[in-house]
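Appendix B. Extra example for self-study. Work through it before the problem class; the solution is given directly after the inputs so you can check yourself.
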Amino acid sequence: MTIVAESIILPERRSTAGRLSDFFWRHPHVLLAILLGPPLLWLGLVYLGSLFALLLQSFFSIDEFSGLINYEFTLATYRQLLTDANLDIILRTVTMAALVTLVSAVIAFPIAYYAARYARGKWKALFYLAVMLPLWSSYLVKVYAWKLILAKEGILTWFFEKLNLLWLLDAWLALPLVGGNSLSVSYTGTFIVFVYVWMPFMILPIQAALERVPQNLIEASSDLGGTPAQTFRYVLFPLALPGIVAGSIFTFSLTLGDYIIPQIVGSSRLFIGQAVYAQQGTAGNIPLAAAFTVVPIVIMGAYLWMAKRMGAFDAL
Amino acid sequence: MTTAVLFDNVSRYFGAVRAVDRVNLKIAEGEFFAMLGPSGSGKTTCLRLMAGFEQPTGGHIEIFGETAEGVPPYRRSVNTVFQDYALFPHLSILENVAYGLMVKGIGREERRKAAEDALAMVKLPGYGTRRPGQLSGGQRQRVALARALVNKPKVLLLDEPLGALDLKLREQMQEELKSLQRSLGITFVFVTHDQGEALSMADRVAVFNEGRIQQLGSPEEVYNRPKTRFVADFVGSSNVLSADLCRKLGLKASFASLRPEAVAIAPPSDGALSLSGTVASQSFLGATNRVVIDVEGARIAVASPAARGVPPIGSPVTLSFAPSDLHPMEDA
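Solution. Structure tokens for the complete assembly:
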């Protein structure tokens, strides 16, 4: 040995950065407070605070004549929310959100399953690219693109025509409620665009959940006599459920709050998002707009509570 | 005697890798059969071929006389105890054990009773309401065993089931497994890389290397008369004598094996063979001392009784052993 240490303990560091890092090493809680403080402040004060202020608004009412807000505690706005016309909006939005969530889950599961179980190497990269790529382009561009695809003169009609299946499309559009003049002005169109736009938010959590299911559990089920259908029902699905619930929270709440898609593609009837937009903008009825935003919050709260009761988070 | 499992020239290739290469074996009903080998030797793939998780690239597999190729795992009366147990984390212990009966459509009450009996059999009565995450490794191992046995399989496959347990527990489980197998009369096929485990538990042992069976026989045969260099090395670290030493001892074969405990550090008595060398190293193993002797550059290990005392390192010694302990081997 040619190098002999002068002392066992090295001298204290002199630079500011060095001293600071030594200080943080001795007081890890200070570092944690510095790192977490600003985002917590933002979440706690700015975000939750303004949310609370918004909710407070819903307990005020608007003066019919002057259009000014009357800052007195009242449930009048909620009474207004529960009129038939507004309930109609709520029901329409919740039904749409539920259907979009259900169909997204059904379409997403096989894709996520393939990605989690079979895709390797470049196929996995390709999967991520294919799922994420739509998220990189503007949401408005995508929605307008869909309007063109779904229009009467659009490629979808052309496609049905070439396949001699135009009668099928017409029969669908002739149906009440889901039909219309063309797909781009029907609920069916709104539904298709919603499913398309939110699909990545369903695929990725399911894929993550499925990736965490060990292969040998599938083998164990099969070994014990479980057919593939039984293995899916008793092992794979329960273990993927937290992922499905996570994905459904995204698709459900995003559909509940969206006001652009139903405005561009769909009938002229309002969704919750559009109602909020109209009430706080043109109508200037902030209390009613606030009351409308309470609806998705309550629904999501109830949904999460139910999912927890059903044991969706047990495997977490 | 019925044949439980038959492998006729079975191969399983993964691309260019020959995981299992033209394996022939016949496992008798009620036998405790061990497949022993280092990792990557093909023993686990053989087990997976029996379970149906893998399909052979070539050859023919029969289970109780019925062709097994193309039969999915869920249509085989064969159950597996997985290496890491593979218990379902979202189900209770009772539901785990009753799983096989549940998917077969057996009634709730009947399968609860069968599962509780199975849990009692593996000495875990009353654990049914817990979750796999709440049990220790040894307990989980027993649950995995109960979950397989509750189906009354014709063949039970065990994939290194004791690998994750500590030594004391492992020895205890070895004995329990063996007595369980004797009382149930089920054919056990056991995969392990631990030669002590294979020798102490099995009726017959197949030693695997590079996808092929190197030797198949009773534990005594495999231990005392290794057929190849690999078996001599892998099963209990026999000394492998080189061609030079063999010639010196008047042996025709190019290699021969000599077990450490067959050698004594003593001058030869009548008819015994002898070699001389110097002590190279020694270590205390409890009941014996392991002494390595340098004989003309070759190292020969000797298991010398601890009571005998060991000559110091570097001192010249004479080794003696009976000619019958020297086993000629194939050159492999």
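Self-check: The interface with chain B takes residues 214, 216-217, 219-227, 230, 234-235, 238-239, 311, 314-315 of chain A (CB under 8 Å). If your reasoning did not lead you there, revisit section 3.
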